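COMPLEX REQUEST
Ligand: zinc ion
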Amino acid sequence: MSSIYKGKCLCGTTTYVSTGAPINPHLCSCTMCQRSSGAPTVAWLAFNLKDFSWGSDSELGLYRSSETTQRCFCKRCGSFMGALNDGCTSISITIASLENPNLVIPGPHHSYEESAPSWWKTTLLRDISHKAPSPTQKISVRPSVHEDIQAMVRLSKEKRLSYEKVQPTFWRYAGPKAEVAQTTWFETLLTRDDIIMLTATDENHTIVGFIIGQLTKAPDVYDPLGLTLLVDDFCVAHEHDWDSIGGKFLQTIKDLAREKGATQAVIVCGAHDIPKRNVLHSNGFNVTSEWFVKNF
Ligand SMILES: [Zn+2]
Ligand SMILES: [Zn+2]
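STATUS: Structure written out below.
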């Protein structure tokens, strides 16, 4: 059974069609969504790019709103219609731009709900989003295997390139030789008993994130009465995914680490990486230390 979803802008010039089903319908109240749409909350879905096309007469405009994301709008009437993450196999589309927005109900996931204007955080909004069926996109988290490594190295590189812009020395991307070294390093980690490596895949089996934790013993003076799970490498493919995938990763790695005797987790996060920080905060993590870096 194939489904066809059509959408259009306010003036009708820019149109699209998808022959594939919507993925991960959800709400987002991040400040960028608010500013680009002029609405307090945007309802999103995604379509696989292989199923998706813009109408041939469309006057599509693209605005680069972040290092990795472009926002899509109609150049004639200005309607805000979507967002495109670099290298992503899907495109995010505003549910309100569908010809029939009743066809897709956002799931319970509401990104950056806390950023919505206070008058908007109504009981009604919560009721609507929590009553809706769960998202159609199925994210699975499983132990990493050798075949995942190439995708993990690629995600790692993308993260590095975006972090590098914030702190060029500390987060410097060392070029292709670093990728070779990291491939070898990940291969080694896969064989170690003190390492937990997990991979997230979407319903198309695309790798959308990974986490690597090391079980370490704290010095006796600091002994937290068990092992510490130290997580340095922890990436997702798209910033928008931190909320849904990040929480699943944290829960799964916590369960596995506890079985192996861990009593706490320490997770490294770039100071500027707001989506990742938010997911850590919302999963009960507190900032206990900060690194101050200066170039000489
Ligand atoms: Zn238009
Ligand atoms: Zn947003």
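REMARKS: The chain is about 25% helix and 30% strand. The radius of gyration is 21 Å.
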